[in-house]
């Protein structure tokens, strides 16, 4: 994978860095795995704006992704690696031997023509999905389940990965992308390898218009608001705004909002880095 720096022939392209899309093999998605995607524009059922800074953007169709990988023991061939407008990672189209097709999150190094399989009998190779009980310790994994059968919820975005650190009884210890170390049941599934499109963090949009294409409207900084609109607003001239906090007055930057009585606290071995 690579990135391309464009020639500065227009002001919008002067600083633009785009994805090389070397890994992409087709620009035509599988029609049977597409679904419509409705936009609200931040409005509720009465048309009133309830979420700020949302609206516009290019029309998208949702790609139905198989996060559960529950077709165990049936080999599937990777037919293509595709772009997905709904996520930062690339996706892979699988053709199972029984004729079914599905999309999965593509891992770095997944090639067209490669065979992937899921289940306890799978080998720990890139793209294969296995229970944590069968994965060798120290393996780099992604698309990790939090509860058995729930489907992948952790380490799904571009370039992310987790690491299987240890196993003890019915729990496995996993180091997550945030730096948090957490216990997960060994019956949960995970995919071997790092999520694709790791160069995503190097991209530069180059102009404000591209943010509008993504459906994000201009965001007003709290410091320039009036006191009636935000706790950080008001003051004469260019004032700093005081302590950083949300519109509801909750402090930002270091203030912990996680409940001390949350049920899942006992599964967190080490909190994420500040």
UniProtKB/TrEMBL annotation:
* GO CC terms of this entry: large ribosomal subunit
Q: Name one GO biological process term.
A: cytoplasmic translation
GO molecular function, one example? structural constituent of ribosome
Quaternary structure, from the entry: Part of the 50S ribosomal subunit. Forms a bridge to the 30S subunit in the 70S ribosome.
Q: What does this protein do?
A: One of the primary rRNA binding proteins. Required for association of the 30S and 50S subunits to form the 70S ribosome, for tRNA binding and peptide bond formation. It has been suggested to have peptidyltransferase activity; this is somewhat controversial. Makes several contacts with the 16S rRNA in the 70S ribosome.
Q: Large ribosomal subunit protein uL2 RNA-binding domain: from which residue to which, for each copy? A: 42-118
User: Do the record's keywords include rRNA-binding?
Assistant: yes
Q: Organism source for this protein?
A: Xanthomarina spongicola
Query: Which portions of the sequence form the region Disordered?
Result: 28-51, 221-274
Question: What is the name attached to this protein's record?
Answer: Large ribosomal subunit protein uL2
Task: Provide the family line.
Answer: Belongs to the universal ribosomal protein uL2 family.
Its gene is: rplB
| Stretches assigned to the Large ribosomal subunit protein uL2 C-terminal domain | 124-251
Keywords assigned by UniProt? Ribonucleoprotein, Ribosomal protein, RNA-binding, rRNA-binding
């Amino acid at each position: 994978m690579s990135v391309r720096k464009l020639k500065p022939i227009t002001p919008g392209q002067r600083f633009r860095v785009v994805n090389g899309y070397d890994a992409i093999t087709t620009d035509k998605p599988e029609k049977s795995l597409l679904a419509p995607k409705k936009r609200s524009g931040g409005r509720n059922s009465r048309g009133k704006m309830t979420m700020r800074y949302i609206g516009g953007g290019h029309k998208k169709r949702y790609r139905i992704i198989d996060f559960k990988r529950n077709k165990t023991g049936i080999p599937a061939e990777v037919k293509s690696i595709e772009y997905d407008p709904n996520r930062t990672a690339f996706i892979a189209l699988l053709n199972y031997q029984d004729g079914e097709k599905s999309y999965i999150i593509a891992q770095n190094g997944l090639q067209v023509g490669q065979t992937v399989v899921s289940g306890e009998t799978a080998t720990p190779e890139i793209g294969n999905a296995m229970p944590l009980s069968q994965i060798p310790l120290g393996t780099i994994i992604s698309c990790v389940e939090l509860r058995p059968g729930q489907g992948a919820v952790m380490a799904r975005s571009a370039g992310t990965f987790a690491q299987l650190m240890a196993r003890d009884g019915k729990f496995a210890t996993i180091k997550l992308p945030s730096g948090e170390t957490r216990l997960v049941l060994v019956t949960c599934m995970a995919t071997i390898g790092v999520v694709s499109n790791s160069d995503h963090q190097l991209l530069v949009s180059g102009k404000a218009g591209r943010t509008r294409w993504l459906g994000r409207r201009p965001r007003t900084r709290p410091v320039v608001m009036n006191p009636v609109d935000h706790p950080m607003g008001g003051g004469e001239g260019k004032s700093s705004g005081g302590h950083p906090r949300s519109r509801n007055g909750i402090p930002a930057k270091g203030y912990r909002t996680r409940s001390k009585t949350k049920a899942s606290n006992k599964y967190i071995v080490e909190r994420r880095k500040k």
